Amino acid sequence: MNPEFIGSAHNPSQFPTDQGQEVAFSGRSNSGKSSAINTILARKRLARTSKIPGRTQLVNFFSVGESHRIVDLPGYGYARVSASVQEHWRNLLEAYFKRTSLAGLIVTVDVRRGAKELDRVMLNWANEARVPAAVLLTKADKMSRVAANVQETEATQNLGASVVLFSTRKHQGVEEARDWIWKWLGLG
Ligand code: GDP
Q1: How many domains does the chain have?
Q2: Is 55 helix (H, G, I), strand (E, B) or coil?
Q3: How open is the CA angle 76-78-83, to the nearest 5 degrees?
Q4: For residue 88, is it within any domain?
Q5: Is the pLDDT of residue 50 over 60?
Q6: 153 lies in some domain
Q7: Atom number, ligand 1, closest to the C-alpha of residue 50
Q8: Are strands 59-63 and 4-9 parallel, antiparallel or unpaired?
């Protein structure tokens, strides 16, 4: 498996042909989504980690096999974006979730912040699209093990999705995430 960047879409007409399987990543800006993609795909700078949250409103597609893709959805929840940017994000995402190749959704949630409304919106959209979803509770290295375990239990009870504590620093949860993704893609 040698992931390759396919392209970015600013609107649905730029999405690649809707065939095969793809797993999408979503998450609030700065939740560690890009770091998670890079770690899971074992590539240093495939997805761009950002210092300026909320700037990119692009859907980025990476190929991980002939008809298998990883999709980096635009981050959300950045307070200072305009109403028109929010509207654009919602339309883009609503169109995205109609893709028949969508086979699963990963949502990155900073373990210290917990899931917010837009994270739940994403999980709902996955549910409505009848695809499995999992939550990575990121930056788990920034919390004590006991406190992190409490967050994991709560999230599992509240979110209706698989949940795993995740840390790029400690390489925690990476194998679980890979297993889910490969299974959803039909490559497991
Ligand atoms: P994105 O905006 O959701 O794509 O988030 P990034 O992947 O760019 O990460 C945001 C910030 O969190 C960066 O400074 C990362 O270095 C940091 N970060 C991401 N994952 C981890 C992690 O597992 N542990 C720690 N301590 N920091 C992380």
Answers
A1: 1
A2: coil
A3: 85
A4: yes
A5: no
A6: no
A7: 8
A8: antiparallel
Question: Which residue segment(s) compose the domain that 19 sits in?
Answer: 4-108+117-133+174-185
Tell me how far apart the alpha carbons of residues 69 and 62 are, in angstroms, rounded to a whole number.
Answer: 5
Which CATH number do you get for residue 83?
A: 3.40.50.300
**pLDDT tens, residue by residue, 156-180:** 999 999 999 999 999 999 999 999 9
* Ligand 1, residues at Cβ distance < 6 Å: 27, 29-35, 49-50, 53, 75, 108, 138-139, 141-142, 167-169
Global confidence as pTM: 0.95
Ligand 1: which residue has its CA nearest to atom 15? Answer: 32
- CA proximity to 102, closest of 127, 129, 63, 121: 129
Surface-to-core class of residue 156, CB atoms within 10 Å of its CB (0-12 exposed, 13-18 middle, 19+ buried): middle
Indicate whether 151 belongs to any domain. Answer: no
